[in-house]
Amino acid sequence: MNTTELLNSWYNYGTIITSKKKEGTYMPHIIPINKLKNTSKISELCHETDEPIYVTKNGYGDMVIMSMEIYEGIIRQVNMYRELQISEQQIIEGKTKDARRALTEMRERYDL
Questions:
Q1: Alpha helix (H) residue ranges in 1-112
Q2: What is the overall mean pLDDT for the chain?
Q3: What is the 8-class DSSP label of residue 15?
């Protein structure tokens, strides 16, 4: 199946379609850029689903649109992975403390 046939099957003859999970597979929301004129429908679609909407231009991926809630969740996840990566690097470099000793020091320092 070539790209045009694939996109046509997702576009459903130019109308915006919703994603559906069929037997464990994910069908993403894909719309052509010229469908962005109906912004309220796009906004509804963003809030109805928990997935991003992929926008194509001339048959190629161009942008991704998602609700603020989904975006903020992704940013939280990216930040968590960044913190984990820093923590793992600190473990490799030996920049760790014994938990009991660290808690004792904090209690003494802050009179807890």
A1: 3-11, 39-48, 68-92, 99-109
A2: 80
A3: S
